[in-house]
């Protein structure tokens, strides 16, 4: 289990990185944290001819939390984002999801943007980006960067909307609007494993404490994060009188997960429903200003 | 250069210089040399073990600029110029074992010892960041390291004991 | 200072080096060695049409490529079948490199040697093997249909078939007793595959010394002496010219007892041929597909019992999946068949097994070695009897227990060593009493009801076992006291983390009356001890421990004799304390063991202070006797062997409380309690560590680990991402209590402890989940997904 050889490039700034990447003619891979890429290379399931190492691009190691949201640079490690109090204030869903990303040691090295660019539908962060309606900023040599909305970024399993020569330089996670609660729950076989099912939920209340918007993104429920708008299903009622079981049933009916060696498709579907109900209730409670719900199983 | 088109003869070598356990060390290696192999085979520091080479077992965990990382999921060339601490560097300058090392022995927190260096590095950083962890934090903190021998109970105990020893000694654990 | 170290929780002597990175495991050796890698079969069953190495010949750093055709006589022969058995009528072993046909994914086909492992893998990837795919045979029930064959000359894929029958005291057979019993049940049970999965894989490193004509081999093995014999025979070398050393071994759990592995033959052979050091370090993917697995069985049970739940007749039919080859014979199913009865007196017992070939990785012992399956069968049976009668599960077990006054108790079976299976000692009622107290068995219904009021689902489970440990034929120990007063102990069997250096030193220090720090222990190094069997079957402490004690007693006797002369005393009045031989009750007169060591050797060159000092004790030589008397030897050393007449039987009982989530079907172990009896404990800290580790592996086998083969014989989860060994987050806190029923069979009164922890866990967890859910659990492991499906199907 040793990686195959490759041409190694270690650019020192973004322009150089983009130029190098453009020159690899589509046979190049970007190396940031490497926590998904290097295992594949060690197993020789990936053999890129060129590796463009962006670890010297200090300008990408940024985490900026402003009133409108959090922008995470391509070199920001999971652990930095997870630890940032400012990020937790602006967009608490990030911290609650990051706690489920593999194990702490992996989070020390792995990057948030790398995880998005890996586009694994079993991973937590794509679902977070999707449910929040965030975006990924994509740069290429000789062209202005473009922002790709989450809904267009995840094309299929391990298939991000990144053309050859393109680099995901940052991701933007919009802030929580007022009267909004979020939650992330998942069930994995072992602590830290990819989830058999997981749900990120965002619930916004109106002035009368009724549910004005309810959105979930489901992990491991399809080829990409499955975003479902449940606002109508919630029926603009106060959280306490919302029929969460019916809402969860709708989620269960609308996802179409695959089975694998860890869980049957039927179980994943069932579990997604259970978790949607839990996540929505927690998010709604948080939106209503009721705290201390996060320990609910 | 890719696998499908035949392997290169005479792969390009990179001069990689790292500070390992406080000493500047260097070697000329291919870009694909994993940090784990660099430490073990190029520098002869065989205390860092390799148990899976896909980042799950944690045996190869070392401290990179103080933070525990998987050396099997890191190319040596990527971290050139940075500081690495391995199990060989955990003891004090006079060779006195660190509180974590002492606690592991005291609590019978190892059997075959193969996973131990990874645990020691992980726990060293854990206690530096959180000198008085409760059991939940301990379990979460070591949850990315596999041990096939101990059942973890004595490892959890050892982490608590190491925290005690560090406090008694009035010293840091790193 | 006390030298009674036996029984004390002495800190481990191994740990100093292991916590500082100074351990030396296989891959830490041979810095300049060439690296080997293997091209392995990607198919479960295929005929090799052609091997094209041409593309690899120009690979950077390539040194050699070998296929079956390149191997010389003996090296090319099929690997040995280690433990033949009359019932194994169709034993088959692999060639070291595949010849014509591959029979499982991972079978080695081509060996590549290159400058380093990266380059060896590069070259291996360029070798093209043309396969004609054959129909793979997967799953024992498909295999016994015999529609397709793993080996063309093994009809029905049946490697072995064995029946053992123990009639009732009245002479009736088990089937007859079942038929006549007041109550009868019949059911089917399933256990899936898991594996030892030590964190250090296998590995071999060989150095050939052409000048000396000698070979030194390091192997991460559980038996260096047997690897040595195998390598010498395969390579045609005189045995004294081959040395095999097991360095620090990063876990074994059974998989490293198999020998010789193909790589253990090929790597030394290549080293000789090339005149270069060669090393192969198994990587994780190789370990999954090219070492060994265990556990998979399908069991059909018929049981007849009375109103008290006493078993009158038990008939079990087992289909055992032994994979593609049988290098280790049929030890695993024999153990299942013979250890199934546990602590119970069964009216009549019949067990029949068929050991079946499939196109999967071979099956050889993994910690527990057939016992987890046996206990799963017996304990599920007990639970089903209790459920049927509406009785307490512990009570039904107690009704069947062998009583303390019934030992030795002959189960009427032949054990794995071919000797009668006679339990030597134990106290099962007391074990059960301790366990019930530890886990709160009698009050659990209240706990459960209280939890239910809060919407929580709790269940409690129990499992009992008896474990034959310390099988023969023998182990030996050698003890030498040198003139510096140090005690050098060696034994041939190996260590892979159990702390042998510590416990054997405790035994030697206690027997010889010396401080612990004066004792050093070497294991698994044929340069120090040539005759040994190996570390498996919970036998190291029993066999080597007793052998070392006996060797120490020889040394002690000589030390007293020599010291008696020097002190002009009667040896019977002497004792050794703190390394000094002295007259009992007279602290003044004494002679240190160091001096005794010098006195034991008439060659008195004064190389050190002790030798100088010893001259003051040199009495007048009796000129009528030779300097070394007839029957005596120079030096203060002793060698002895311990060869047990039969195995000694440890026992234990576990209980667990689990919680199952009514919605997600997640299963959490809230409490885990163990009562364990391994006779006298040498070091309770180490025994407890063995139990913890065993239980953790048991939890893996009960809730997480399985080898998932698809219909094509592809192993779908050959990585730590998907083969789910428990982390700290998955293993419960384990409460333990000990009972010490000494074994009457050996001088130290000890029984084995290494495997115990793992044995009943699947049975216990199944019992607890069943109690929580009220649904029969007949298949292990069980995942949340499977529990969910069980709930669905049982609702229908």
From TrEMBL, chain A:
Gene3D superfamilies: 3.30.465.10, CO dehydrogenase flavoprotein, C-terminal domain, Uridine Diphospho-n-acetylenolpyruvylglucosamine Reductase, domain 2. SUPFAM superfamilies: CO dehydrogenase flavoprotein C-terminal domain-like, FAD-binding/transporter-associated domain-like. It comes from the Bacteria. Signal peptide: none annotated. Residues 1-178 form the FAD-binding PCMH-type domain. Keywords: FAD, Flavoprotein, Oxidoreductase. Transmembrane segments: none annotated. One of its GO terms (molecular function) is oxidoreductase activity. This is Carbon monoxide dehydrogenase. It comes from Sphaerisporangium rufum.
């Amino acid at each position: 289990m040793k990686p195959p050889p490759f041409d190694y490039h270690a650019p020192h700034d973004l322009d150089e990185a983009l130029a190098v990447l453009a020159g690899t003619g589509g046979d190049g891979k970007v190396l940031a944290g490497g926590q998904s890429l290097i295992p594949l290379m060690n197993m020789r399931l990936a053999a890129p001819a060129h590796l463009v190492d962006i670890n010297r691009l200090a300008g990408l190691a940024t985490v900026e939390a402003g009133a409108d949201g959090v922008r995470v640079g391509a070199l920001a490690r999971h652990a930095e984002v997870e630890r940032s109090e400012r990020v937790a204030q602006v967009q608490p869903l990030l911290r609650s999801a990051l706690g489920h990303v593999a194990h702490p040691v992996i989070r020390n090295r792995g990057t948030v943007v790398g995880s998005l660019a890996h586009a694994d539908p079993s991973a937590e962060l794509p679902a977070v980006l999707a449910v929040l309606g965030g975006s990924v900023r994509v740069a290429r040599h000789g062209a202005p960067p473009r922002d790709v909305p989450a809904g267009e970024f995840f094309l299929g399993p391990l298939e991000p909307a990144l053309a050859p020569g393109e680099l995901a330089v940052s991701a933007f996670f919009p802030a929580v609007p007022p009267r909004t609660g979020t939650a992330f729950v998942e069930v994995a076989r072992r602590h830290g494993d990819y989830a058999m099912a997981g749900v990120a939920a965002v619930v916004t209340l109106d002035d009368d404490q009724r549910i004005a918007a309810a959105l979930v993104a489901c992990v491991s429920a399809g080829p990409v994060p499955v975003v479902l708008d449940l606002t109508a299903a919630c029926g603009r009622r106060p959280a306490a009188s919302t029929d969460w079981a019916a809402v969860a049933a709708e989620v269960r009916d609308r996802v179409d997960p695959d089975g694998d060696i860890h869980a049957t498709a039927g179980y994943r579907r069932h579990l997604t429903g259970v978790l949607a109900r839990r996540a929505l209730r927690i998010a709604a409670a948080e939106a209503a200003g009721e705290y201390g719900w996060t320990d609910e199983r | 250069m890719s696998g499908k088109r035949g392997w290169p003869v005479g792969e390009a070598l990179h001069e990689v210089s790292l500070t390992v356990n406080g000493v500047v060390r260097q070697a000329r290696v291919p870009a694909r040399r994993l940090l784990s192999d660099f430490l073990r085979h190029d520098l002869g520091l065989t205390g860092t073990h390799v148990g899976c080479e896909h980042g799950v077992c944690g045996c190869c965990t070392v401290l990179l600029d103080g933070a525990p990382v998987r050396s099997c999921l890191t190319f040596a060339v990527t971290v050139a110029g940075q500081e690495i601490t391995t199990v060989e560097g955990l003891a004090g300058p006079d060779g006195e074992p660190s509180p974590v090392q002492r606690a592991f022995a005291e609590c019978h927190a190892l059997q075959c010892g193969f996973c131990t260096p990874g645990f020691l590095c992980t726990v060293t950083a854990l206690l530096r960041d959180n000198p008085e962890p409760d059991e939940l934090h301990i379990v979460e903190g070591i949850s990315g390291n596999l041990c096939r021998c101990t059942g973890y109970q004595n490892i959890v105990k050892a982490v608590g004991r190491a925290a005690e020893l560090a406090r008694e000694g009035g010293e840091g654990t790193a | 200072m006390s030298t009674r170290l036996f029984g004390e929780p002495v800190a481990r002597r191994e740990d100093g080096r292991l916590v500082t990175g100074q351990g030396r495991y296989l891959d830490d050796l041979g810095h300049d060695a060439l690296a080997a890698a293997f091209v392995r079969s990607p198919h479960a069953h295929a005929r090799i049409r052609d091997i094209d190495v041409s593309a690899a010949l120009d690979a950077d750093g390539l040194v050699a490529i070998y296929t079956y055709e390149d191997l010389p006589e003996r090296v090319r022969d099929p690997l040995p079948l280690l433990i033949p058995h009359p019932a194994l009528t169709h034993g088959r072993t692999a060639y070291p490199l595949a010849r014509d046909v591959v029979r499982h994914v991972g079978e080695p086909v081509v060996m590549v040697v290159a400058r380093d492992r990266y380059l060896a893998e590069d070259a291996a990837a360029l070798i093209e093997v043309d396969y004609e795919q054959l129909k793979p045979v997967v799953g024992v029930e498909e295999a016994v249909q015999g529609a397709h064959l793993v080996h063309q000359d093994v009809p029905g894929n049946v490697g072995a078939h064995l029946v053992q029958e123990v009639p009732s005291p009245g002479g009736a057979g088990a089937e007859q007793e079942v038929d006549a019993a007041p109550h009868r049940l019949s059911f089917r049970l399933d256990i899936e595959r898991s594996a030892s999965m030590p964190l250090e894989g296998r590995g071999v490193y060989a150095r050939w010394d052409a000048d000396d004509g000698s070979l030194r081999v390091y192997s991460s093995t559980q038996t260096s002496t047997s690897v040595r014999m195998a390598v010498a025979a395969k390579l045609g070398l005189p045995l004294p010219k081959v040395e095999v050393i097991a360095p620090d071994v990063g876990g074994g759990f059974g998989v490293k007892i198999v020998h010789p592995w193909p790589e253990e033959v090929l790597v030394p052979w290549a080293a000789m041929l090339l005149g270069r050091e060669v090393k192969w370090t198994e990587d994780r993917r190789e370990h999954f597909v090219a070492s060994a697995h265990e556990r998979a069985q399908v069991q059909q049970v018929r049981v007849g019992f009375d109103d008290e739940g006493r078993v009158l007749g038990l008939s079990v039919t087992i289909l055992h999946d032994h994979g593609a080859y049988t290098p280790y014979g049929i030890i695993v199913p024999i153990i299942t068949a013979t250890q199934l009865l546990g602590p119970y007196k069964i009216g009549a017992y019949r067990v029949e097994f068929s050991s079946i070939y499939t196109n999967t990785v071979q099956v050889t012992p993994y910690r527990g070695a057939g016992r987890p399956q046996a206990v799963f069968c017996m304990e599920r049976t007990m639970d089903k009897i209790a459920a049927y009668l509406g009785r307490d599960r512990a009570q039904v077990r107690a009704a069947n227990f062998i009583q303390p006054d019934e030992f030795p108790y002959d189960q009427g079976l032949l054990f794995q060593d071919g000797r009668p299976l006679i339990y030597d000692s134990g106290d099962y009622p007391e074990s059960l009493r301790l366990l019930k107290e530890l886990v709160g068995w009698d009050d659990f219904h209240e706990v459960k009801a209280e939890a239910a009021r809060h919407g929580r689902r709790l269940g409690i489970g129990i499992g009992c076992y008896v474990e034959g440990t310390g099988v023969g034929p023998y182990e030996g120990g050698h003890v030498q006291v040198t003139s510096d007063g140090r005690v050098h102990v060696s034994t041939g069997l190996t260590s892979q983390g159990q702390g042998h250096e510590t416990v054997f030193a405790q035994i030697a220090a206690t027997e010889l009356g010396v401080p612990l720090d004066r004792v050093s222990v070497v294991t698994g190094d044929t340069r120090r001890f040539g005759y040994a069997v190996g570390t498996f079957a919970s036998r190291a402490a029993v066999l080597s421990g007793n052998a070392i004690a006996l060797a120490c007693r020889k040394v002690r006797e000589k030390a007293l004799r020599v010291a008696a002369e020097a002190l002009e005393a009667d040896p019977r009045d002497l004792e050794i304390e703190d390394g000094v031989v002295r007259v009992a009750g007279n602290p003044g007169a004494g002679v240190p063991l160091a001096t005794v060591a010098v006195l034991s050797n008439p060659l008195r060159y004064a190389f050190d202070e002790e030798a100088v000092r010893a001259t003051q004790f040199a009495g007048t030589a009796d000129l009528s006797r030779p300097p070394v008397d007839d029957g005596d030897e120079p030096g203060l050393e002793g060698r002895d062997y311990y060869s047990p007449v039969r195995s000694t039987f440890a026992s234990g009982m576990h209980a667990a409380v689990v919680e199952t989530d009514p919605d997600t079907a997640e299963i959490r172990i809230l409490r885990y309690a163990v009562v364990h009896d391994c006779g006298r404990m040498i070091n309770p800290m180490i025994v407890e560590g063995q139990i913890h580790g065993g239980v953790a592996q048991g939890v893996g086998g009960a809730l997480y680990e399985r080898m998932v083969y698809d219909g094509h014989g592809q192993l779908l989860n050959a990585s730590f991402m998907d083969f789910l060994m428990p982390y700290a987050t998955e293993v419960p806190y384990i409460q333990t209590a000990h009972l010490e029923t000494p074994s009457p069979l050996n001088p130290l009164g000890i029984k084995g402890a290494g495997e115990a922890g793992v044995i009943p866990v699947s049975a216990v967890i199944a019992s607890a989940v069943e109690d929580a859910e009220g649904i029969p659990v007949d298949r292990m492991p069980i995942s949340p997904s499977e529990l969910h499906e069980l709930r669905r199907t049982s609702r229908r």
